Amino acid sequence: xxxxxxxxxxxxxxxxxxxxxxxxxxxxxxxxxxxxxxxxxxxxxxxxxxxxxxxxxxxxxxxxxxxxxxxxxxxxxxxxxxxxxxxxxxxxxxxxxxxxxxxxxxxxxxxxxxxxxxxxxxxxxxxxxxxxxxxxxxxxxxxxxxxxxxxxxxxxxxxxxxxxxxxxxxxxxxxxxxxxxxxxxxxxxxxxxxxxxxxxxxxxxxxxxxxxxxxxxxxxxxxxxxxxxxxxxxxxxxxxxxxxxxxxxxxxxxxxxxxxxxxxxxxxxxxxxxxxxxxxxxxxxxxxxxxxxxxxxxxxxxxxxxxxxxxxxxxxxxxxxxxxxxxxxxxxxxxxxxxxxxxxxxxxxxxxxxxxxxxxxxxxxxxxxxxxxxxxxxxxx
Length: 381
Fold this sequence. Notes:
Aspartate Aminotransferase, domain 2; seven-stranded mixed sheet; three-stranded antiparallel sheet; 12 strands
C-alpha cells in the first residue's frame, strides 16, 4: 500500500500525539476553572494559540480555535453576512472553491444575498483584475482560496488582499491546504480572515483555527458562554488544541518543504518517462503547492484506475466528494477537455513519502497500463 493522498488528510505526527496525551489523561481540567488542573488546561490553550500565531506571523489574540476548517469558513461567511448586512449583501468568490465555501454561500444566496463567481484560467488561477471589477458598492466580502485542493495552484492572494483593502472590503482566504506547506505572513499580507484545518498539518481531525485580524468583529457562529474571547462558545478541546499547536511548530520546522517538492517532481519525471504524452499535468506547473501532482491519464477513467489499483491510495478530486463519476468541477472551470479531465488523479505526497514508494507506484501503474493495452489490442483484433 502506498498512501499518496496527503491533501485529503495526514497521519498524526508522533510529537503531536505526545503533546495531546497529558490532556487526555491526568490533565483533564476545564480551562475556565481557576484551580490547578484548570489553570494547566488554560495554559495549554494559550500555548497552542501562540504556536499557531507564530506559524502565521500573527498575534495570538487573532487566533480563534474551531472544530474544523469548514467551521472556520462558515464562521466568516455567515458572521460577516449577519454583522454587515446593513452595508451590503454582495460577496465574491471563485468558481473552484471547496464545498466548505460554496455551500455556505449557496445558503446565503437562498437568504437574500448575492454572490459573484469569478472564473479561473487554464492553470486554475484567479485574475485579480476580475476580482477588482466584480467589487460593487454593496460588496462586503471577497473569499478566494489560498491554494486549490485538487490541482494545487497558488492564488495571487497578496494582490487580491491589496485590492480589497483599497476598496474597503473584507478579504478571507481558505488556507486549509496551504498552511504548513508554504510560508504565510499575516503581518505583511492584508488578509482579514484565514482558515486553518488541523488534519492537513499532521494534527488530529476535529480541530481547526480561524485568524480574525485585530479590530474586526463578527457575530459568532456558535452562541453560549464566552470562550475564545466570545467568538466561539463551547468548552475548549484542550487535547486537540495542544496537538494543533505542536503541529504548527513542526510545520514551521519543515518549511519551505523543498523535500516535498523534490519527491513530487521525481514522481512526475518517472511518470513522464513511462507514459510520455499519454499523461497531462493539470494546474500551474510552477506556482503550486510543493506536494501536489494532478495528472490525467488520457483516454482512461481516473476513478477506474484507482479502483483497479487498490494498493495506490490517491484521489480523483477532493476527498470530500469522490463518489461522483462526472469530471471534477475544478477541471471543468479550468477548461480542461472532458476526455482529459475524466482521467485525472490527484497525487499528494507528504512528510513520510519515500522515493521507494514512488517507484512502487509507477511500477504498479506500468503493469496496469501494459495489461490494459494488451486487452484493448486483443478486443480490437
